[in-house]
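Data card: per-record layout.
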Amino acid sequence: MPISREYARSLLADLTQSAMVPLDPDELLHMPGLAQHGHVFFGDIAVRCYKHKARWMYDEREIRRAGRALAELRLDLDDVVDVQLPAYRESGSTDPEEWQRVDWRGRLVSRMFGQARRKAHAGRPYEECDDSWKRVGGNGLPGELTWEEFVAASSRFAYSRNLAGTRFLELLTWSGTAWVLPRAYIELLDRWAQREEELVERARFCSVCGLKGPYWDGWRSSTSQGYVTRCPPCSGAAFRAYAGHLRGVQYESPRRRRTRADDYLCRLCTRRQAFAWDHCHEHGDIRGPLCGSCNTREGKAMPYYFLQLEENALHLLECRSCLEQQTLPRRFHLDIVRTHLEKTERHGRCRRLPYVRAGEHTRGAYRFQLECSGWHAASRWTRDVTASEVTTLVRDFVGTVLAAREDRTSPAPAESTE
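The structure for this 418-residue chain is written out next.
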């Protein structure tokens, strides 16, 4: 029987009240491995995610089986062994695919050193930063990081707080010479790593032709039935390229409702089946069909990074009203100004790009905070930009994007035969 994520979370929490392994049932709400393999892990137990009537759900029988198994799992808290953490390696020093593989020991080390680096560099000029944060102290943590600071920083987010749906920090202990965990818990995490690798590996194969795809979610598409794996050639053969035939049509129009988005390829990435019709929330105009990943990125990603790609800005201008008014949705305006200030503002004679943060709106102007503290002696200043200036900068940005498209599509001049 399919049950909602909320009920599944409540049910698992009730079934595992006496579990010796500290669990985080909220993983059933967050579904961290959804795009990669379609399961949620608690230790080495994988609970499959289902889509029923376009909503993510679980099978009640699976939740009950998982709950009983986790409640029966025994840990001897006195039987602890050395975790045997690997040496710290910078993310750029390894193959990207290797870096993304399931390695819970490596993740733990990365979190420790990452937090130590953030503490060591906080508020310090770039030229004063060194590698002292890499030295491990007597408490087993790098730099000047304390256990309390590490726990507090890790607890802010589920991805840093949990391993395999378990709260590992409640069991991790420094013996004075090594980090230790209960032997049975280490074996549980090792089984999880192997099991998750198997599921990710299985999800890499195209469901149509069987071709093996990239490790990290490259060919996975969200559909009304769940995630499927389909290579770009098979997607191109199965779905049509969008030709802009709904440009200017309102999202609430009966014409849109008669046209399925999942009959098309995603307009942005052009390699996945589309999932939904993206539209301008200010004007109601349809922009085009997007896959689940691109649709989420357009709606929830930071506008500053979304606009770094020219194709993304052109997609926003598929809204006929935005195009005619030479504007973009309001949520992008301040980040256009931020990019402009980064290019034009400097601290004295410094040639480095400053870091810009949008500040408060006061007295008809937006106040931006700028700083150069990452490069030399700390320096901060403000820059006020009026509403009319924001409008002009947005219009200039749109004009630049459209001109670049025109240059790219204009035919090359014929060569002279003289």
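Known properties of this structure: The chain is about 40% helix and 15% strand. The radius of gyration is 26 Å.

See the next section for split statistics.
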